[in-house]
């Protein structure tokens, strides 16, 4: 095929046309609306103000919130507005204090008028007038109905019915609709079933077009890459139906996807065959693509390659590549081409190319309503016709047009985009040269590549062809989840789904490792306790763990199969869990290598760690706990949860396959009675890692009061939704957080706290009901299932939550038992939950959500913090002040803003809670400090020093007056400098190590009160520990059996440290009746402390020898908090997060 590229004749023809169009446009009167748009794009503050006005004044349901936002925006009214509009905005801001209900509707009408040339009112009478007025310009119209976010069946049906009503109008002959707008969200792993569903949903619309007495045209639109294959499948399936064989219809292709040409070739082959059967041709609308920011978001959050071309020039070249392929006489007989866009050079090129090849009668030119209208008219006069893309929206849905408007405005403002120069192109020779040079560069790239080349997709992941070694990430990065948009992965996933019902995976391993006698268990414990694993260096252990990343990747299909078969995990829930397990292997391998390098202390591996994981994350948590202990140098005995024995067994086999010695990693299945108690209470156990209920942690301590227990326990998590929130997004995240894995996640949000007007918002309620009632519930062997079963028949508190209402509560969505097993329930939503009620304070672990009202954000935070737990917490708001206030006050280890509360990712969001959600002297899983709590520590000399801060220097100065030995003073100074160094590098920072543009992920450290109990009377170690606490900013209490030396006590008190003399009886009573949350024990023994405290699980004991390492000692006084904040709005950066953490 001949490439029409950069020869002089072509360039001359193109430039001549472009200059002609610019000259013609310059002679036309510029409409006021178009001039305002130009002013918006020129003014540096114009885009931000306009988008902010739409998003913050027009979008909110609550007029008072909108009025407050208007007052904020009015402080910086940009200069592009004429003086009278600036005056009106400022006057409106003042009046909004007393009459928001009057001012905001006026502001909404004013904005609709301002952007009315970009959108059309969908009310019948106004729509008819608008269509007639636009058609007077000699153009055709492609109507696209905008609406609320499609979260369920109701909105999908409304959008489809609205589009059918549009197409039935005598003055409408052309409509566009996206497949994603016609059905509720479906399982990403049910491609075939989703195609069937969409086809049946769209069939009446296509039938209407085919049977109409006048010609009607339907264009299938798309935005997201993941919809490409589905849109093509639906399109071809519909038009292959015998009754639709004569219908001409259209589909869009996006040139910013490398996949565009291969898709065009497939469509050409199919269209040719259809015409050979006597069918009509089709049309392809070729666009550059308008979803680039969100494609960046999608790729970055999932660790997938960017689906689009990486540069604008590559996109421009691909646009011409597809045109060169399509605009051939034998091909245009099958596919008519719609050249869509405003770049005059591209339009001129397409017109010239079509002319040279004699196919101008098979080309349409398409532009957007209201954009560069004078140039559009000039083009129309040359090409003989123009099709305008016309979005229509009902006034009550005007705010949902925000995403469309943002894309249009940001496209226009981007310096990479032709539209940024469109208003000055005629008068500014520099801008003209810029656009001409870009055009020539894109053609030259086409010349260099040749049009015979068919670009390959950027996303080519195919799990059927995986090389497991690719999962080894050094240096660390998160491995990619499986992309269900890709055909190979879908076939791979369907094969797994087909095996679920008859799966026997892991059964033989369970049988082999089930212990029924104390003697067999003793053999296992004795073998593990004497394993030589601890003799390996951190680097040696890390190398083995990296091999485990590869074997876990190889086991991904088996792990997904067994999780689904045994615990009811659907593929969309299970696949990220396998990725998490692999991430743990890679991440802890890196930490193991660093463990030997900690300055000021020596890591001493414990002999044996017992891991007792949960059933709800039957692969990731067992793997993470086991790998962490192995990384820290400890042998491991893992006892998987009874409900997930097969899952745990298959995971352990993958670790053995990596070369982890079987003596160092023992798998046991024992009953939860005598043998289980024997395992947990064995004195050789140096650590026990538990993930489960707080009551289980307390039970284990009752078996052995001095058990070194590290536990992530329960959570009662809530998402606060304020009137400043994007309610559609809030509903989406609330539903996902509440009902993923049937609500059986410790991070699940089982409460929605609705602030102010949100509790009365009809839109919020309607969208919530629609989303919840549209979830497909089923067993994982059904690929359409979006919510699986609960682990066992509902009973006790969960059954009560699913079937009964407390005073004041009502069912917004009443759950139903769906089969005789008692495991399959539809999701439920309660309203009227009262503060302090059982539902407010109790973790149920199932598919039931409660809604509780709050007067304002302060009350909402109080309600959220009132529970005993502090695992995850969420907030939905677009207000900066609310965000700051919430982040400063929320009591949770993992805090999320404008996203779901589930799905923590290794290193990105280290996981672990506060209050009763955490037991023991541990740190966040998947975070930089997790291995420190899994080791014992021996003293070593610190060599790295930072600058001692003003908070600590007086302590050191005062110590010089105490007559300490020189060695003690040197020890103290080295220790405090080590603290300072670690504070500068880690603990004093709020750091985001991920660097994601779409999401801010910060790990920070917050001070926590600590009681220092010194039993040995040694002054230097006491001052060293107190110094760490002072640097951390903690409230410190020093407890001693006898009064401190007066000089020491005076020094401590002068630094704000409380000093108490408590004899053994007083101390014991304090531990039992009013215990501190954390105790740093100096001298004494764990055993004596355990006896005195009766093994209370709610006291975190730090009892290692005092070391100089700030990396170790500072952790006593700090608790970690991971804060994740969505950092984009429709894919574009939002000022909400700028400087949020300093």
Describe this structure in words.
The model has no long low-confidence stretch (mean pLDDT 94). This protein folds into five domains: 6-31 and 117-449, TIM Barrel (Alpha-Beta Barrel), CATH 3.20.20; 32-116, no CATH class; 468-713, Aldehyde Dehydrogenase, Chain A, domain 1 (3-Layer(aba) Sandwich); 717-904, 3-Layer(aba) Sandwich (Aldehyde Dehydrogenase, Chain A, domain 2); 945-1122, Aldehyde Dehydrogenase, Chain A, domain 1 (3-Layer(aba) Sandwich). By secondary structure, it is of the alpha/beta class. It has 41 helices and 35 strands. Helix 38 links the parallel strand 29 (1036-1040) and strand 30 (1058-1061). The protein has a nine-stranded mixed sheet with strand order 18-19-20-17-16-22-23-33-27, sandwiched between helices. InterPro entries: Ald_DH/histidinol_DH, Ald_DH_C, Ald_DH_CS_CYS, Ald_DH_CS_GLU, Ald_DH_N, Aldehyde_DH_dom, Bifunct_PutA, FAD-linked_oxidoreductase-like.
Residue fraction in strands: 5-15%
- Low-confidence parts, pLDDT < 50 over ≥5 residues? none
CATH architecture of the largest domain: Alpha-Beta Barrel
Q: Give me the secondary-structure category.
A: alpha/beta
The CATH class of the largest domain is: Alpha Beta
- Major beta sheet, specifics? 9 strands, mixed
* Strand arrangement across the biggest beta sheet: 18-19-20-17-16-22-23-33-27
What is the number of beta strands?
A: 35
Number of helices: 41
Anisotropy-based shape: globular
Mean pLDDT: 94
Helix content: 40-55%
Cα-atom radius of gyration: 33 Å
- How many structurally independent domains? 5
CATH topology of the largest domain: TIM Barrel
Distance between the termini: 58 Å
């Amino acid at each position: 095929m001949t490439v029409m590229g950069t020869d002089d004749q072509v360039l001359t023809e193109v430039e001549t046309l472009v200059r002609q169009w610019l000259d013609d446009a310059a002679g036309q009167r510029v409409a006021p609306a178009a001039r305002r748009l130009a002013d918006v794009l020129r003014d540096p503050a114009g885009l931000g103000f306009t988008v902010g006005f739409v998003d913050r004044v027009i979008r909110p349901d609550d007029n008072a919130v909108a009025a407050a936002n208007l007052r904020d925006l009015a402080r910086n009214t940009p200069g592009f507005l004429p003086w009278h509009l600036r005056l009106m905005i400022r006057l409106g801001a003042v009046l909004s204090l007393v009459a928001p209900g009057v001012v905001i509707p006026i502001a909404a009408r004013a904005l609709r008028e301002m952007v009315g040339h970009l959108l059309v009112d969908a009310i019948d009478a106004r729509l008819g007038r608008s269509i007639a007025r636009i058609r007077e310009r000699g153009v055709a119209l492609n109507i696209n109905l905008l609406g609320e976010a499609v979260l369920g069946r109701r909105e999908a049906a409304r959008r489809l019915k609205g589009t059918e009503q549009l197409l039935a109008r005598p003055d409408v002959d052309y409509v566009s609709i996206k497949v994603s707008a016609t059905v509720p969200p479906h399982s990403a792993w049910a491609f075939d079933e989703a195609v069937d569903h969409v086809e049946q949903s769209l069939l009446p619309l296509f039938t209407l077009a085919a049977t109409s007495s006048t010609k009607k045209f339907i264009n299938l639109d798309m935005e997201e890459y993941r919809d490409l294959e589905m849109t093509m499948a639906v399109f071809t399936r519909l038009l292959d139906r015998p009754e639709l064989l004569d219908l001409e219809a259209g589909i869009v292709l996006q040139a910013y996807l490398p996949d565009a040409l291969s898709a065009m070739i497939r469509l050409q082959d199919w269209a040719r065959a259809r015409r050979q059967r006597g069918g009509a041709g089709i049309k392809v609308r070729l666009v550059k693509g308008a979803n680039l920011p969100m494609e960046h978001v999608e790729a970055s959050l999932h660790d997938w390659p960017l689906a689009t071309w990486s540069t604008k020039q590559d996109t421009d070249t691909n646009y011409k590549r597809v045109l060169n392929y399509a605009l051939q006489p034998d091909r245009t007989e099958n596919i008519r081409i719609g050249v869509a866009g405003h770049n005059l050079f591209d339009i001129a090129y397409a017109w010239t190319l079509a002319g040279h090849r004699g196919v101008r009668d098979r080309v349409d030119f398409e532009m957007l309503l209201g954009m560069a209208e004078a140039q559009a008219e000039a083009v129309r006069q040359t090409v003989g016709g123009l099709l305008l893309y016309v979005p229509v929206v009902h006034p009550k849905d005007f705010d949902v047009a925000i995403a469309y408007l943002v894309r249009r405005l940001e496209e226009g403002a981007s310096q990479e985009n032709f539209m940024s120069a469109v208003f000055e192109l005629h008068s500014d020779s520099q801008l003209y040269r810029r656009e001409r040079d870009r055009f020539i560069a894109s053609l030259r790239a086409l010349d260099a590549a040749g049009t015979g080349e068919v670009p390959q997709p950027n996303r080519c992941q195919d799990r059927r062809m995986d090389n497991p070694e690719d999962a080894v990430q050094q240096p660390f990065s998160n491995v990619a989840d499986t992309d269900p948009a890709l055909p190979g992965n879908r076939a791979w996933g369907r094969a797994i789904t087909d095996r679920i019902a008859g799966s026997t995976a892991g059964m033989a391993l369970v049988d082999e490792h089930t212990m029924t006698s104390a003697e067999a268990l003793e053999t296992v414990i004795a073998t593990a306790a004497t394993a030589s694993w601890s003799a390996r260096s951190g680097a040696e252990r890390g190398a083995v763990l990296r091999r485990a990343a590869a074997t876990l990747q190889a086991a991904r299909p088996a792990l997904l199969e067994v999780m689904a078969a045994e615990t009811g995990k659907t593929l969309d829930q299970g696949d990220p869990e396998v990725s998490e397990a692999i991430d743990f292997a890679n991440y802890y391998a890196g930490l193991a290598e660093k463990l030997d390098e900690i300055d000021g202390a020596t890591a001493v591996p414990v002999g044996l760690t017992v891991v007792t994981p949960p059933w709800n994350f039957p692969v990731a948590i067992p793997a993470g706990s086991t790998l962490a202990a192995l990384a820290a140098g400890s042998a491991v005995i893992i006892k998987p949860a009874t409900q997930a024995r097969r899952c745990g067994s298959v995971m352990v086999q993958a670790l053995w396959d990596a070369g982890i010695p079987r003596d160092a990693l023992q798998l046991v299945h024992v009953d939860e009675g005598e043998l289980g108690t024997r395992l947990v209470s064995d004195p050789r156990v140096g650590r026990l890692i538990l993930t489960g209920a707080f009551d289980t942690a307390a039970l284990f301590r009752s078996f052995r009061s001095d058990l070194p227990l590290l536990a992530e326990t329960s959570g009662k998590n809530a998402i606060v939704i304020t009137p400043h929130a994007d309610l559609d997004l809030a509903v989406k995240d609330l539903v996902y957080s509440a009902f993923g894995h049937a609500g059986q996640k410790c991070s699940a949000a089982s409460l929605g706290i609705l602030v102010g007007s949100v509790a009365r918002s009809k839109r919020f309620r309607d969208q919530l009901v629609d989303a919840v009632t549209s979830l497909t519930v089923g067993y994982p062997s059904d690929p359409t299932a979006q919510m699986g079963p609960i682990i066992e028949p509902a009973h006790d508190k969960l059954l009560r939550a699913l079937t009964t209402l407390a005073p004041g509560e009502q069912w917004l969505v009443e759950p139903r038992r769906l089969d005789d097993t008692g495991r399959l329930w539809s999701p439920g939503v309660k309203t009227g939950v009262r503060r302090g009620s059982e539902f407010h304070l109790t973790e149920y672990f199932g598919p039931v959500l409660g809604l509780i009202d709050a007067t304002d954000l302060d009350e909402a935070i109080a309600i959220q913090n009132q529970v005993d737990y502090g695992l995850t917490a969420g907030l939905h708001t677009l207000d900066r002040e609310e965000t700051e206030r919430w982040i400063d006050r929320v009591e949770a280890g993992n805090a999320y803003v404008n996203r779901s509360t589930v799905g923590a990712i290794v290193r990105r969001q280290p996981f672990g809670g506060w209050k009763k959600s955490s037991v023991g002297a541990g740190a966040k899983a998947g975070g930089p400090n997790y291995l420190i709590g899994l080791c014992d520590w021996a003293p070593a000399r610190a060599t790295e020093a930072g600058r001692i801060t003003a908070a600590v220097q007086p302590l050191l100065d005062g110590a010089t007056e105490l007559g300490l030995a020189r060695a003690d003073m040197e020890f103290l100074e080295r220790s405090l400098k080590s603290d300072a160094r670690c504070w500068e590098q880690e603990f004093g920072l709020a750091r985001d190590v991920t660097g994601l543009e779409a999401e801010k992920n910060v790990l920070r450290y917050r001070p926590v009160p600590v009681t220092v109990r010194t039993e040995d009377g040694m002054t230097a170690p006491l001052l060293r520990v107190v110094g760490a606490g002072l640097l951390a900013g903690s409230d410190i209490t020093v407890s001693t059996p006898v009064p401190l030396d007066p000089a020491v006590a005076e020094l401590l008190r002068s630094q704000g440290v409380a000093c108490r003399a408590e004899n053994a009886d007083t101390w014991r009573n304090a531990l039992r009746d009013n215990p501190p949350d954390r105790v740093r024990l100096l001298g004494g023994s764990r055993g004596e402390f355990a006896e005195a405290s009766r093994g209370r699980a709610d006291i975190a004991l730090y009892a290692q020898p005092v070391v100089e390492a700030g990396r170790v000692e500072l952790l006593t006084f700090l608790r970690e908090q991971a804060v994740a904040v969505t950092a984009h709005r429709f894919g574009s950066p939002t000022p909400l997060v700028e400087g949020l953490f300093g």
